[in-house]
Amino acid sequence: MSDIRKGLAGVVVDTTAISKVVPETNSLTYRGYAVQELAASCSFDEVAYLLWYGELPNPGQLEMFSQRERALRRADRSLLSLVAKLPENCHPMDVVRTVISYLGCEDPQEDDSARKANLAKALRMTAVLPTVIAADLRRRRGLDPIAPHSHLGFAENFLNMCFGSIPDARIVKAFEVSLILYAEHSFNASTFAARVVTSTQSDMYSAVTAAIGALKGPLHGGANEAVMHDMLAIGEPADAAEWLRRKLAAKDKVMGFGHRVYKNGDSRVPTMKAALDEIAALTGGVKWLAMYDAMEKTMADATGIKPNLDFPTGPAYYLMGFDIEMFTPIFVMSRITGWTAHIIEQAGSNALIRPLSEYSGVPQRALRS
Ligand SMILES: CC(=O)SCCNC(=O)CCNC(=O)[C@H](O)C(C)(C)COP(=O)(O)OP(=O)(O)OC[C@H]1O[C@@H](n2cnc3c(N)ncnc32)[C@H](O)[C@@H]1OP(=O)(O)O
Ligand SMILES: O=C([O-])CC(=O)C(=O)O
Question: Whose Cα sits closest to atom 51 in ligand 1?
Fold first, then answer.
């Protein structure tokens, strides 16, 4: 029997220079910078630049980069009509997945995986995806899309395209913090899926499409939606403890808790919890803070398992006015920067990813005796 590590738990499969997760010290760095410091001091554009180019931009570089991003925000008519044609009862993650696939069909350079071409694709996808997600949110509410504005920052512009106005600057900042925290997390399942596809020398759009499929699942990015569904099902903070006890007794997983790498708490949660506190104070959402505390305490007492990043983002996005099914697409809007950085890294130092398996079926037998 070989040494099988189910789910590749604990297996180091390659090196990466993009981010480092150290569960022992509860630290996460992007290109050497602590994520908490990036969230406090940087814009999402600066973090995207850092992930792709390895260094923070100087003011001139940032200006040029932001101008290029702003110029690529507009979704052309064919893209918007594709979104409009997709069934409204499909999950918005299916829309996002389909749109990325379509962008690949449209791109005459689709199969050019040189670094320069891939950087251009990464920027185009990152710039246009918010426009598509906002248009999808609005069509599900029976509203026309709002065109992007090139004078607005990345987060402000997205919120304006969704809601038709820009919220309080403190809410915009809290939202931008969530995007920065979501941007990158080493070899998580969706990033690994992207790297597997890239390792066959396939194109960036195919790799991102695979990553979106992996992120949709509730054990990964889909947990932020599940958290809010659970909080609404519980209803009142006073009922959280009993609800959780029943869930645990049935051996069900509680969404938004636990992590494959962090066993003593997710390094991003304190920063996101502070952002949630800010949003709740400004939107009158203190009930959901009480729910958060009740669930966190009951889980800690019963299992010792701590929340992951999807736990605070669920109520934060809900209080900002997003429909629950838009939560994971927002995660995509941010993580696409990390995925594409990994795709570029994988393509630049490639080895086909193809592990082994141990056969567990019937022994070899004759077809006819
Ligand atoms: C951005 C992100 O993707 S963060 C992750 C988002 N996903 C979730 O929130 C889904 C809920 N959490 C989980 O399912 C898990 O914690 C995972 C999948 C994230 C990580 O799981 P793994 O590292 O594979 O740990 P595993 O599932 O083996 O759990 C170890 C033990 O803790 C328990 N456990 C782990 N997470 C939870 C949870 N959320 N609720 C209840 N029990 C849990 C398991 O039941 C298991 O118990 P056992 O040893 O008695 O069987
Ligand atoms: O690292 C993981 O396994 C999941 C996660 O937290 C992320 O992708 O942000």
Answer: 251
Query: Does any ligand 1 atom lie closer than 6 A to the CB of residue 260?
Result: yes
Q: Which residue's CA is the nearest one to ligand 1's atom 22?
A: 260
Architecture, CATH, for domain 223-320: Orthogonal Bundle (1.10)
Residue nearest to atom 6 of ligand 2 (CA): 185
ipTM, interface predicted TM-score of the complex = 0.98
Active site residues: 259, 310
Burial class, 144, CB count within 10 angstroms (exposed 0-12 / middle 13-18 / buried 19+): exposed
Does ligand 1 have an atom closer than 6 angstroms to the CB of 307? Answer: no
Fold type of domain 16-218+327-348? Citrate Synthase; domain 1 (1.10.580)
Secondary structure letter of residue 6 according to DSSP:
G
Instruction: Give, to the nearest 10 degrees, the angle between helix 77-85 and helix 92-106.
Output: 140
CA distance linking residue 294 with residue 290, whole number of Å = 6
Predicted model pTM: 0.98
Domain range list for the chain: 16-218+327-348, 223-320
Q: Minimal CA–CA distance to 141: which of 332, 323, 333?
A: 323
**HSE-up of 176 (CA within 13 Å, CB side)?**
23
Query: How do residues 2-55 score in pLDDT, each as one tens digit?
Result: 799 999 999 999 999 999 999 999 899 999 999 999 999 999 999 999 999 999
